Amino acid sequence: MTTLSTHELIIRIPDRAPGYALDLRFEPGQVWGILGPNGAGKSTLLHTLAGLYPARSGEVRLDDTGVNQMPRRQVARQLGLLFQDRHDGFPATVMETTLIGRHPFLSPWQSETADDLARARQALAKLGLEGMAGRLVSTLSGGERQRVALATLLTQAPAVWLADEPTNHLDLHHQVEAMVLLAEQARQGSTVVMCLHDLNLAARWCNHILLLYPSGDACWGKSRDMLVPEALEQLYGQKLLSTEIDGAPVFVPGL
User: Fold this and answer.
1) What is the CATH number of the domain that holds 39?
2) Residues 61-100: pLDDT tens digits?
3) How many whole angstroms separate alpha carbon 11 and alpha carbon 218?
4) Residues 149, 100: Cα–Cα separation, whole Å
5) How far apart are CA 206 and CA 226, in angstroms?
6) Rounded to whole angstroms, how far apart are CA atoms 66 and 165?
7) How confident is the model over 122-139, as pLDDT tens digits?
8) Is residue 78 assigned to a domain?
């Protein structure tokens, strides 16, 4: 079991004063939702957790080792990142792209094994993409590309999933499919940390919430304590109406 944690972490956001120091512990089995308005630093935090952005101060650790002290291949064997947007660097099929998830486990110039191929096929089938394995990714819709990205992460099978807007470009059915997939990973012992704009997806699927304010302040805790109208109205500067459906709060904007 791998634990991701931060120690006095202050993320680096240009033209903004240092924010609140984050001492967080993301445990296996937990599903965290990071909420906040545009510019609050959600994506920056996620990339800092992955070791891709330098922190202003503090440290991110996988178990007892700092992420920036570990070889990138070792980090990639434990931690996977789903980007909010992605660009095609070169022509590649859906299968070739999905197999990128196995690259951290291969030695230089080593070809994918039969097990790697089986993992990729299973991931594509899980996302309903088995019939598109031979298609170029550049020919897919935005939603189909997002599902390929999720399949790539599933093929990687990291202990820690960092997902930046995992439902981006997805229709309602595939949004639910994506959230079910992430929840399944947590139930199987992975840690899931995701940035979300949709309060209702967070309320339905996340058991822990981190609120990031544009001022740099932050607060976090269990979902039932964080997803309350008073805190969320302050976060977004928007009046909210709430009710409860199937045991989960539902929020709509008020006037």
Assistant:
1) 3.40.50.300
2) 999 899 999 999 999 999 999 998 777 667 899 999 999 9
3) 12
4) 10
5) 11
6) 25
7) 999 999 999 999 999 999
8) yes
